[in-house]
Design brief:
Blueprint: E1 5-11, H1 35-47, E2 52-56, H2 70-74, H3 88-93, E3 99-105, H4 111-124, E4 129-134, H5 139-144, H6 153-173, E5 180-183, E6 188-190, E7 198-201, E8 206-209, E9 222-225, H7 230-239, E10 242-245, H8 249-265, E11 274-279, E12 281-283, H9 287-298, H10 303-314, H11 336-340, H12 352-358, E13 368-370, H13 372-386, E14 390-394, H14 400-415, H15 428-433
Parallel strand pairs: 1-2, 1-14, 2-3, 3-4, 4-9, 9-10, 10-11, 11-14, 12-13
Antiparallel strand pairs: 5-6, 7-8
Length: 458
Amino acid sequence: MKKILMNAVHMSCVGDIAHGLWTHPRDQSERYTDSAYWVELAQALERGRFDNLFLADIIGANDVFEGRPDAALREAVQMPIDDPLLLVPLMAHATRHLGFGVTVNLTYEHPFPLARRFTTLDHLSRGRVAWNIVTGFLDSAARGMGLARQHGHDERYERAEDFMAAAYKLWEGSWEDDAVVRDRAHRVYTEPTRVHAIDHDGPYYRVQAAHLSEPSVQRTPVLFQAGASTRGLDFAARHAECVFVSGNKQQAREIVAKIRQRATAFGRNPQDLRFFLGVVVVVAPTDGLAQEKYAEYRLHASAQAGLAHFSSQTGIDFSRYDLDEPISLVKTDAVQSFLESVTTQSEKRWSVRKLLDQMTLGSRHTPIVGSPQRVADELESWVRDADIDGFNLVRTVVPEGFVDFVDLVVPELQSRGSYKTEYTEGSLRDKLFGAGPRLPARHPAGAYRVGAEPRNLA
Ligand SMILES: Cc1cc2nc3c(=O)[nH]c(=O)nc-3n(C[C@H](O)[C@H](O)[C@H](O)COP(=O)(O)O)c2cc1C
């Protein structure tokens, strides 16, 4: 069996995805403003040979439920929240191998300064940074940025295409590999003829300048993405190296096959992509003890907070629904696929009551609860049956849930040969793909490399 890849998911806030668990007496997520909290977490994950700490992020308040942010604020649903990019240097300094997958919503950024921020992090982490490319789904974010409302769903992806083209040119096409000569004797740090201003004149972004930073180990960070709509899947197939998928085994398998197949249409090798499924795990030495722990966690979870979050994700104010009213599909500019998962893409008829029943740990994930053997069996069956490569382990009680996984599940998987016992040396891209630190030349970004043959990227 292939080696299972593992990301831990957290956010720079108190209540991220498994809502309410911050109220558990052993939970420490209130320490998110303390640098030691992040260093301790990163070191624990590295001890468990995790591939990445994936930092999700959101710009804007979750204010769709009841038309105001009150429920989200009371329950700490992703607000207050700090900037995840700024956590990376702390943790990179205290670790050697762990990757950092950081979410940045490009809608409210410009390629010129953002490309420099990622290069800086790639320098400081010696090539261990990844970017989770998102385009946002909240009107509250748009209002914060001086717009009346967010751009339409598909337009966000059009903007993202243009953004990526400009960013690739800066990362891949501005500085030649040997531009920096550091020649003290001749007083030449950089050879000017080897640095090129890019000329990007796209529909949304214009960049006529050289990249400000010298090249980093990976140049382009490893690219994560979670597009689920038709337009989103296309974006993932073109750009993403690590893709987040959801659904049951059959659905996940179909999405994986579809994206791999679509990737070939963009000239990529389908094996240049890795797929991850979100999971919540409650593990203890025996099944009985795990069930006890799960029952105890449940006392602190908040399905109401989960519902407030799901309102923002879908763009539907569920406070207006009767408990047993069937949920129907309406067009919103939020995450269409999340609404489809409880309407057209589900055999079940969903209602608010059913959503609340499902959110036993404050999110829509069905937890895997049991002994290390049971959890390992379940994870291995997903890799086998859904053709995924690994998992996004969503937080429960932090850091306890992550540490339990490291101490109990990781050794079990290692003893079965389905999990690494040592890291591969090199950059994050080396560790994930084993083919060097740079994006493969056949990735669309390869066309922007200095000296690359012109290619039709349509
Ligand atoms: C595992 C996972 C993590 C995600 N993380 C974020 C995030 O941190 N911030 C964000 O704004 N959107 C996040 N999203 C939403 C995606 O960026 C995207 O909008 C969503 O998957 C739907 O894609 P679609 O717009 O193609 O329907 C995430 C989605 C998934 C499945």
